[in-house]
Amino acid sequence: MIIRDPCARRTQGRHRAGYALLALVSLMFWNGQAHGHGLRLAFMEALESTPDQWHFVLKVPTFGEQVWPLELRFPESCTPTRAPARHQLESGDLADLHWMHCPRGPSGTPVTIEVTGLAEGLVDLLVRVEHKGAGTQDEPPTESIRLLTAADPRLELNQALASGAAGHAALSARFRLGVDHILGGLDHLAFVVGIMLLMATLRRVLVAITAFTVAHSITLAVATFGTLRLPEPPLDTAIALSIVYLAVEVVRRLRDDAPPATLGRVWSVAFLFGLLHGFAFAGALHDTGLPRDELPLTLALFNLGIEAGQIAFVFATAISWLALVRMTQPADRALANQHRRRLALGAAYVLGSAASFWTFERVAALVRMV
């Protein structure tokens, strides 16, 4: 008769739970958007030329040959004053033009329009509104910026915003755009996970993340202002390869028990790849149609949003990883070290497999373009 050790059984159960969680994460990577930086920022201007007379310019993004189905839905109180038109921009995106008469509702109730076709993590809409108000001291002309998302796709017109409220809304919209962009960028988040697995200690992670942040801030600014811009398809391929490189380095270090890289090498590698990711981040701001004098503030707040989202992700990932290790590791110290290594190897294989798939997919897309 074989007597099973209940402690060993519990340990095996915890191991299975840990590997099941890794398998779940793997499915999330495989089923996620391969173009992790593919969030496109649509842009719309709503200009009130005279009281209640509005001119809408909606920039509709395109993905290859696919035109994203963004549409404006006006309330019955709004009537067209001219036939709508569509123009193609130099960037390849389309601009839909609408001229509408939208009178205020009873007691000055704002007129609400809805934008259909927004998609979480894929397409957000940055709106710049200029309206005349009543032209009085109590209701002067105002300008505001709003960010519309799939969760909040409605815009109120004729809304008499106080200057402070309008300014706060504009700052919040730009900041939220950066947060949404980073948290929707699966390949960027995968790269950050790779850095955390490779560096192992908190000090090295902070050094690498700092180098990465400095680098992508530089190229984000350069690309946004149009000084230098890289084509998106080869850039996406290079980003996928950067994740493959990190995964291979993690596996090599864990299997060969190689010593950790020097801090100088950590900085240089993270900085180099940060330059690539910065060009990808710029895709969300470039050619949006924002006035050039608004770009510096938009860029600064967008970058701050990216950093806030990145820091939140790093802390959430670190806490989740520590919880997973503690929940599944055996009591014996030697076995616990071996178990942590196996979990890290499993995570590296998931990362490398997903990034390899993205690489092949993006190379195939490049070949089709030639």
Stretches where pLDDT falls below 50 for ≥5 residues?
1-24, 30-35, 160-164
* Number of DSSP-assigned strands: 11
SSE sequence, one letter per element: HEEEEEEEEEEEHHHHHHH
Q: How many helix segments?
A: 8
Q: What sort of overall outline do the alpha carbons produce when their principal axes are compared?
A: elongated
Estimate nothing, just give the exact number of structural domains.
2
Helix content: 40-55%
Q: Biggest sheet, open or closed, and with what strands and sense?
A: 6 strands, mixed
SSE class: alpha+beta
Brief overview, please?
This protein has 370 residues and is an alpha+beta fold. Helix content is 54%, strand content 19%.
